[in-house]
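Example 9 (inverse folding). The structure is encoded as follows.
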């Protein structure tokens, strides 16, 4: 099961639905990014300027993409029913389940998305994500560390970053 998910995840960025276009394709080294796009962006509770819920944000918010801000970690948080969960919190730590040192805390916005351009030790040092509900009462954590902050690459389809029932 896990292997199937990972295989799908690896295939996902290649399965591109961009229309036929002679211009270099986003993600390609030849894609020319406007330097004005390199702004600092961090999601905050209540914000509603993000979009593309569930999509891989780093398809575009990257050095060879058209999205403002080069995201170092980004994705979408869902509730137990599979709906986007607004105003939660995502922590990246040196140990699982809210343990270890806190490396980054990113507030989930009002649409359920979270994103940051802050410098992270990824991919050299892998980090453990722990996520919290809006009221902080529920949490979920990844049992092993990730060296990619592009959460929605793996957490796609019915496998979104999700809160437990509670
Ligand atoms: C297909 C490319 C693409 C994907 C995928 C994508 N974005 Fe974007 N994003 C853009 C572009 C282009 C803009 C600027 C134009 C606009 O606002 O539509 C933008 C704008 C934004 C903005 C507003 C920035 C500002 O300066 O106000 C935020 C925040 C954002 N995206 C977050 C996200 C998040 C979070 C995800 C993933 C859940 C995501 N984006 C996925 C291309 C993308
Ligand atoms: C390389 C693929 C990959 C990336 C990238 C990834 N994850 Fe995961 N994540 C997994 C897998 C696989 C599991 C399932 C682990 C298990 O249940 O044994 C998981 C589990 C989780 C869980 C627990 C889910 C549950 O229902 O028990 C959370 C929460 C989570 N990840 C959050 C994140 C966040 C936040 C990010 C981005 C900072 C992220 N993950 C990036 C693959 C990934």
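The amino acid assigned to each position is listed next.
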């Amino acid at each position: 099961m896990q292997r199937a998910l990972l295989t799908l995840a690896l295939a996902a960025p290649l399965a591109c639905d961009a229309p036929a276009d002679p211009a270099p394709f986003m993600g390609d080294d030849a894609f020319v990014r406007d330097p004005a796009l390199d702004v600092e962006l961090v999601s905050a509770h209540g914000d509603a300027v993000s979009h593309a819920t569930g999509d891989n944000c780093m398809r575009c918010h990257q050095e060879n993409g058209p999205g403002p801000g080069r995201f170092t970690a980004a994705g979408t948080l869902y509730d137990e029913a599979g709906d986007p969960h607004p105003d939660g919190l995502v922590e990246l730590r040196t140990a699982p389940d809210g343990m270890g040192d806190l490396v980054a805390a990113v507030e989930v916005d009002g649409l359920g998305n979270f994103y940051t351009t802050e410098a992270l030790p990824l991919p050299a040092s892998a980090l453990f994500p722990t996520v919290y509900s809006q009221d902080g009462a529920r949490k979920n954590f990844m049992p092993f560390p990730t060296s990619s902050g592009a959460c929605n690459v793996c957490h796609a389809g019915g496998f979104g970053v999700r809160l437990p029932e509670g």
